[in-house]
Amino acid sequence: MAVTRAVIDFRRSEEPKDEAEQQPASYALQLDHVSKSYLLHGEPLKVLDDIQLDIRSGEFVSIVGASGCGKSTLLRLITGLDAQYQGNIVYQGQRISGTSLDRSIVFQEHRLFPWLTVEENILLAFSATNVSQEERHARVKAQIATVGLTGFEKAYPHQISGGMSQRVAIARALVLRPQLLLLDEPFGALDVLTRMKLQHELQRLWEQEGLTTVLVTHDVEEAVFLGDRIVVMTSHPGRIKRIVPVKLPRPRIRSASEFQRIRDDVLSDFI
Ligand SMILES: Nc1ncnc2c1ncn2[C@@H]1O[C@H](COP(=O)(O)OP(=O)(O)O)[C@@H](O)[C@H]1O
Ligand SMILES: [Mg+2]
């Protein structure tokens, strides 16, 4: 179903609209009155309530919210893994009703197969495509280089660190050159230093590939470091409380006073 939108909704945006935002925007993804309920003990449990969010092509959106507020559920809907929802999720003019190779997701756990090498795990992304063997190998090699893992092609997951495994997961997500990258707490299990390094790398990949990116994180600093906007969610049912724009140049300096002001402002929603 093709959907056009006459009115651009940036409600709850905290700052006055700047010139760029007043121009007609090119939206990659539109969440239009999206609600979702699960059945719990035979009763419907509303998990997402009236989610309204438009994401521009090439935008980086961070989503923060307490555990259980429906962040993973929302990403599952956007991926198309779950088509049971109310409202519309429109990706490039089409209502999402199933998965697509154009949208990739990375989870907190790397989900690599332990019996396959780094290279073989990434090659698996091509299994539903008709890309030639030669092209598959060339793209996997290039993607491994992009995430800084050259030399580890033949390593098995148990032979590399958690941070490296997450890079493999990101390489597997990007090797089909999706336009939309979804990340569900991708660095949540990593130590602080590895996490900061991967945040820098994710930003570089996002800039390099022109990806539209939605990052779910419980790390508010990560959300501020990476996002053009931060969507703050509340729980039971999951709703958008507000959307905080981050208009700082990249790469962002975590010790800068404006960075810390935004971080503290978002954190104040949870304390
Ligand atoms: N398959 C399911 N059946 C019933 N309830 C579910 C299911 N998946 C998630 N939930 C519930 O939906 C709510 C949101 O879950 P989730 O999207 O995983 O939250 P988050 O990722 O923000 O922690 C939670 O209360 C969770 O228990
Ligand atoms: Mg989750």
TrEMBL record:
Keyword tags: ATP-binding, Cell membrane, Membrane, Nucleotide-binding, Transport
GO molecular function, one term: ATP binding
ABC transporter domain span: 29-260
PROSITE patterns reported in the protein's UniProt record: ABC_TRANSPORTER_1, ABC_TRANSPORTER_2
SMART domains assigned to the protein according to its UniProt record, in alphabetical order: AAA
Family per similarity comment: Belongs to the ABC transporter superfamily.
Record-given protein name: ABC transporter related
